[in-house]
Write a structure and sequence with these properties.
With about 400 residues, the chain is mainly alpha-helical. The chain is built from 14 helices and two strands. The protein has helices at about 1-55, 65-75, 95-100, 110-115, 125-135, 140-150, 150-155, 170-175, 220-230, 240-340, 345-360, 365-375, 380-390, 395-400; strands at about 85, 90. A two-stranded antiparallel sheet has the order 1-2. Helix 1 (about 1-55) packs across helix 2 (about 65-75) and helix 10 packs antiparallel against helix 11. It starts with a helix and ends in an 8-residue tail after the last helix.
Length: about 400
């Protein structure tokens, strides 16, 4: 008995340890299934939105959009951390708190305008308004991509195992890119912005059950069985309804194929128009690039010509400066020669000084004038000029008039 009890005790302990490992694996499996379900349903909702946009305008009354908004809200709220207060308590937080911080780097974002909305007060309602405004601006994928690139902020707001921290985040940004082709029209004052109730996902549009051919009972057989329970007169030989249902099924299939063809045709036209716009933008950018290169070449040529002209002007200025230095040196030599002469010859010295001043004020360097100035500066030449003015060699007008040869007979 004791042995059995000990064996049972040891077995229970071992089972407890195995149960702990099983709980961990079960929680990891549940988290992975939850992430996969949300991402798959989000992909389905995006496809249904694109299909519905081909036939009608998407607004708040569209059930496809309401379901998509609920799915996106649950994805962004998956494993979101609460806000810790001063007293150590953790209060719930909305995904808008994360978007408001992580999407500030988006150019021309709508964060400030949503913050200043008067009819939207709660944080959850602001997040729902942001989803609608981002869809109308065709920037929802850009917002999500920018927020996911800020890994530090994302890590601060979400716990481990969140969708935005896993590999599914890249798939989410890629899926939302297809919504840029849809023109949305929303009213930011409706009941869809009510933040008092959480969003609920409707999974029924995405559920599809296909019965295999090996199944024991079919839907028609079950319906006949239920009908026979109410009236004994019903006979199982009535095989007309299955044939009619087959015709209806073929008609529905043809209708779906036609819708897919129209959708593919519209997408083809959209892609062709987009390609044409991109080609036009590329050609315009190439032409602008050529114009800019031509402008750069012209400016370089103009700069080279201007540089050559400036160098030529600098050389001319240097030559003029050298000539001015030579004139200054000449005037200094003249002043020295004047100081060496006698005081009695000041009148002739003044005349020579005026002549030299006129020469020094000239702007052109004449070699003959410079030689003349050099001859005047010597003392011997100056004395020869004074000797020519004496009465011994120059006759005055009075002597000419009183000479005997000129007197009248």
């Amino acid at each position: 008995m004791a042995t059995r009890s000990l064996g049972g005790l040891s077995g229970s302990r071992g089972g407890g340890g195995g149960g702990g490992g099983g709980k961990k694996s079960l929680s990891a499996r549940n988290a992975a299934v939850e992430r996969r379900n949300l991402i798959t349903v989000c992909r389905f909702s995006v496809k249904t939105l694109i299909d519905r946009s081909c036939f009608e305008t998407i607004d708040d009354s569209s059930p496809e959009f309401n379901n998509f908004a609920a799915i996106l809200e649950q994805i962004l709220s998956h494993r979101l951390k609460g806000q810790v207060t001063w007293f150590g308590y953790e209060s719930p937080r909305s995904f808008w708190d994360y978007i408001r911080v992580a999407c500030r780097k988006v150019s021309q974002n709508c964060i400030c305008s949503i913050e200043n909305m008067e009819n939207v007060s709660s944080s959850r309602a602001k997040g729902r308004a942001w989803i609608r405004v981002a869809l109308m601006e065709k920037h929802l994928s850009e917002y999500i991509s920018t927020a996911l690139r800020d890994f530090k902020t994302t890590r601060r707001f979400y716990e481990d195992g969140a969708i935005v921290l896993g590999e599914e985040a890249n798939m989410l940004a890629g899926m939302l890119l297809g919504l840029n082709a849809i023109d949305f029209s929303f009213c930011l004052k409706g009941e869809g912005l009510d933040g008092n109730f959480p969003a609920v996902i409707d999974y029924t549009p995405y559920l599809k059950f296909t019965q295999s051919s090996d199944s024991i009972s079919s839907d028609e057989e079950e319906l006949r069985t239920l009908g026979s329970s109410g009236s004994e007169s019903s006979t199982p030989e009535n095989v007309g309804p299955p044939f009619i249902m087959d015709e209806n099924s073929w008609f529905n299939k043809c209708k779906r194929v036609k819708q897919k063809y129209q959708l593919t045709l519209e997408q083809k036209g959209y892609l062709e128009e987009l390609l044409r716009l991109r080609e036009n933008q590329l050609s315009e950018s190439v032409s602008q690039n050529k114009i800019l290169l031509q402008r750069i070449e012209d400016s370089d040529l103009a700069h080279k010509l201007e540089k050559e002209q400036l160098e030529y002007i600098i050389v001319e200025l240097q030559d003029q400066l050298k000539s001015y230095h030579s004139l200054d040196q000449l005037s200094a030599e003249v002043s020295l020669s004047q100081t060496s002469l006698d005081p009695g010859q000041s009148q002739e010295g003044d005349g020579k000084q005026d002549t030299l001043n006129l020469i020094s004020e000239g702007k052109e360097d004449t070699p003959s004038l410079l030689g003349l100035c050099g001859s005047l500066t010597s003392v011997a030449s100056y004395k020869s000029l004074t000797s020519l003015k004496s009465n011994d060699y120059l006759a005055s007008p009075t002597t000419e008039m009183t000479s005997p040869g000129l007197t009248p007979s």
